[in-house]
Structure of beta-glucosidase:
Amino acid sequence: MNPTAATTAEAATTAEAATTAEATRPAGTGRAMPPGFVLGAATAAFQIEGAAHEDGRTDSIWDTFCRVPGAVVNGDDGTVAVDHYHRYREDVALMADLGLDAYRFSTSWARVRPDGGPVNPAGLDFYSRLVDELLGAGITPWLTLYHWDLPQALQDRGGWTDRDTAHRFAEYAVSVHEALGDRVRHITTLNEPWCSSFLSYAAGEHAPGHTDPAEAVAAAHHLLLGHGLAVGALRERDADLRLGITLNLTVSDPADPAEPADVDAARRVDGAFNRIFLDPVLRGEYPDDVRRDMAEHWPDGLVRDGDLARISAPLDFLGVNYYNGGATTGLAADGRPADATTPQATLGGRQRRSPFVGSEHLRAVPRGLPTTAMGWEVQPEGLTRLLVRLQQEYTGPAGIPVYVTENGAAFDDVPDAQGFVDDAERRDYVAAHLAAVTDAVAAGADVRGYFVWSLLDNFEWAFGYGKRFGVVRVDYDTLERTPKTSALWYADLTHSRSLPGGEG
């Protein structure tokens, strides 16, 4: 979509009309979840598994990145994480206690095919044991193939800037299916390719920590090509497999709907964050305006004949990760049009830059909404707007359902003497966003499930262990797990199938 100034301004006016109270409203008592709605929780391999060099696993790009001075807060790493590799039975028992319908987890490429080479049977056997444990507990395994842990050996050959990596990804996908496909029927190819391209190769915030806009554009395309090649290979092997992709999406509003520079800024963010992935996957094309915005950094010959047909192969579902929306301005702090040169910044001793390739001059504008410990605004109504927009413009015409595959919040948890955390803010965040999902369903959006992020406190990428998203607390010294108030609330929901109120 190429949003016009009128449609973008209209959306912004809707957002502006939402008061702070509305943005954080608790779910109403008795609001029933849709029939058959899946309630689950999500994690990622590198963030929880640990066992970094056990049973044949070799370094991923995140193992390497964690060793770079200043890359990760406190120099934290995933060597132990929360030791899920050895404690998975305990963790599955927790899931059963919470009444989860499904568990979304990722396999580690560096564990399954270390160094991007031959299959490692010991690595696959871990996931086979995990799947059996889940099925034995009545929990549906929902597998993600790539949650950012590219084998370092493949990065040494160019990583996602190298077209060959897309083909290696398809091989890896087939290897996982060969081992688990008899029991795992839902497979997501990629998680949040925006993060593993623009945040990783342009902004320098995620592994491998590069700051080259052209590399980021190339990585984005090759990630999508890998997705398409994997879908094709898996469909050929197993026609009944349910396949999808997960995109992190936002709601982009102009800071001032009457200011043309802000309307254009919102269009640019929507293009560089949402449509650069939605359009090739669901429409078989890159948006013209995005190509123009990124023209200076778009590599010649990047998109080859047949690429977009592979990337837009039919899917069975779209996964949506939503944490917050945002308002953007194209004006400098002094109110004049911003210079389109690239601002640079140094944080933690390392250079960072904007992930918005070709639009580095844009600025986010706070709106007075509550924020999480990440500094992200709390905007549940944005999720409703996003899901309705997807239904009207993308998933509805494509005839595929949506699952909210991640939604959650970090807050400054304070445990009591027994390690229990009364995280009322997180409970109300989840309740408000689940209410927003039911609003979208009432408005016609085909949304069939919700996975809270995250089951456990864990390694939060560049923030190390300093930010906690889990509904279950992990004591990082003892690795003891303690369900928080939010977990107990979620367990009530999974059993009642009706949203309780935001208090008590």
About this structure: The chain is about 40% helix and 15% strand. The longest strand covers residues 140-146. Residues 5-496 form a domain with the TIM Barrel fold (CATH 3.20.20.80). The mean pLDDT is 92.
